[in-house]
Design a protein that fits this description.
This protein is α+β, with helices and mostly antiparallel strands. The protein is built from 16 helices and 20 strands. The protein has 2 domains: about 1-65 and about 120-335, no CATH class; about 370-480, Immunoglobulins (Immunoglobulin-like), CATH 2.60.40. It has helices at about 15-20, 45-65, 95-115, 120-125, 125-145, 145-150, 155-180, 185-195, 200-220, 225-230, 235-240, 250-255, 280-285, 305-315, 330, 340-365; strands at about 5, 10-15, 70, 70-75, 75-80, 85, 90, 245-250, 325, 370-375, 380, 385-400, 405-410, 420, 425-430, 435-445, 450-455, 455-460, 465, 470-475.
């Protein structure tokens, strides 16, 4: 049952006409006080489907951080180590282009899904909706009782039930906090945080407690305002949806004008009117406190609770279901719905293009990243024995899931060159980066025009990893001009 408590302590019925007028948000009274919502659950075909989907998603949300592909997590956003593993593929901060292509693909995918299915994510799959409407609100009704039951409870009983409710909420939030952090902290490390003393990992303990507190504030206090105030998705729906997008809508042509059936004298006919009997069942069941009969609104998350509520009333009245239904703006206005339209075609073409470029770039990525950099200091150094020394830094990033050993060579070196590599081969841990210093000693006359092209080769246990080209610098003129390179 929807309702809230006004500034004077009186209970306000959710959706009451007097409280709707002049309200900026469905969770605010006209005097600015919080309007607490207690939506009445509605049973029906959509509620059964949503319950099955929700519990399946909760199981997936919980298990996903612990599942692996080829020994790598399916999803792990390891921010401290700057490693992002998605579907078993690890991305590093240097994968700027890949991450950009992936982000753009996801963004266009969201646009396409929204244009076709509306806000199906918000009502059916968003963790905020899933946990709020299918876990925390049912627990509240089970422990604290419905608003009607609470009115018959003594003050002491209400306080006891409230204490139990928040205790259960805290236990759920602790579990959800650890589940959420498992997406950002390796599960083995998170398990160590849980089983050891907080003194051994104060930073990790603080992160868990802060996350738990934020979830407690969200599900116990902020609640539906997360969708109405914090989440920007609803505000974007005006540009993401079109007249053909799937929405939860009220059929004005069939429902208006509204009429309330009453007692009639024998033989008196029921007044002519629409099918809507103004029972306000759709308002009482709405988790965001809106009236779906006012048209498409930013607050509507397309959860379908109003569909089940209205269908139940229509069946009791002997009228066809579907006064509130899944439809589109075009269909509700009497026009046919078109699935294929320019916006959707453009989204699909862009999505295929971006996904193809991403897949090609991912396939071209090697087992290691090799970067050749000039040493710190001058471009070259003239030694006392008439030779020129180039100091080079070779940076190698191991992109494999196992430790690898890399050997650095200079295939273009002739018999007059001396190549000195203090640490060669170089062992690098999985997804780590190390740097090797290379000194190349060459005679003065090896630099015609003050420069010389060279080619490095980096091998691992499976063969050649990379063969980057590099320009060695030397004196452009006589030996006495050391330290100056040709432009």
């Amino acid at each position: 049952m929807g309702g809230g408590t006004g500034a004077d302590g009186r209970r306000i019925q959710a959706g009451a006409q007097s409280s709707d007028e002049g309200r900026a948000l469905s969770t605010l009274n006209r005097d600015g006080s919080r309007r607490w919502l207690n939506p009445r659950p509605s049973s029906g075909i959509f509620s059964r489907y949503r319950r099955a989907v929700a519990w399946a998603l909760i199981a997936i949300f919980t298990a996903l951080p612990h599942l692996t592909i080829r020994g790598r997590p399916i999803l792990l956003l390891d921010l401290p180590h700057r490693q992002f593993t998605i579907l078993g593929v690890t991305f590093l901060p240097t994968d700027t282009v890949l991450l950009m292509l992936l982000g753009l693909s996801l963004l266009i995918g969201i646009f396409a899904v929204t244009a076709l299915f509306g806000r199906i994510w918000c009502g059916w799959a968003c963790p905020q909706t899933v946990y709020m409407e299918l876990l925390f609100r049912p627990l509240e009704r089970l422990i604290a009782g419905t608003p009607a039951q609470q009115r018959s409870q003594t003050a002491a009983e209400r306080r006891l039930r409230s204490l139990v409710k928040y205790g259960v909420y805290l236990a759920c939030c602790l579990f959800l906090a650890h589940t959420f952090l498992a997406y950002f902290v390796p599960p083995a490390e998170l398990l160590q945080w849980v089983t050891s003393s907080p003194r051994d990992h104060p930073a990790g303990f603080a992160v868990v407690m802060i996350t738990t507190a934020l979830m407690m504030i969200d599900f116990a206090l902020f609640r539906e305002q997360m969708c109405l105030v914090a989440c920007p998705y609803g505000r974007f729906q005006s540009v993401l949806l079109d007249r053909q997008s799937l929405i939860v809508g009220y059929d004005f042509a069939r429902g208006e004008p509204r009429s309330k059936p009453g007692r009639r004298s024998p033989g008196q006919q029921e007044p002519a009117g629409g099918d809507c009997v103004d029972c306000r069942a759709c308002v009482l069941t709405c988790p965001t406190g809106i009236d779906i009969r006012d048209g498409l609104q930013m607050e509507c998350i397309h959860c379908t609770q109003c569909i089940d509520a209205c269908d139940a009333i229509m069946l009791k009245m002997g009228r066809p279901r579907g006064l509130i239904r899944y439809s589109s703006k075009a269909e509700l206005d009497g026009s046919p719905r078109r699935f294929v339209r320019p916006r959707l075609v453009a989204y699909c073409v862009l999505l295929l293009l971006l996904s193809g470029v991403f897949a090609a770039a991912l396939a071209e990525r090697g087992r290691a990243d090799v970067t050749v950099l000039r040493g710190i200091g001058g471009p070259f150094t003239a030694t006392g024995d008439g030779q020129v020394a180039n100091q080079i830094r070779v940076k190698i990033t191991n992109r494999t899931a196992a430790d690898r050993t890399y050997r650095i060579a200079l295939p273009d070196a002739d018999g007059r060159d001396t190549v000195i590599i203090p640490e060669n081969p170089l062992t690098i841990q999985s997804f780590k980066t190390r740097e090797a210093t290379v000194f190349i000693l060459s005679p003065h006359d090896a630099f015609p025009g003050g420069r010389r092209e060279a080619r490095f080769r980096v091998d691992d246990e499976d063969g050649v990893v990379a063969e980057p080209a590099y320009r060695l610098l030397g004196p452009a003129g006589a030996p006495g001009q050391a330290g100056r390179a040709a432009p």
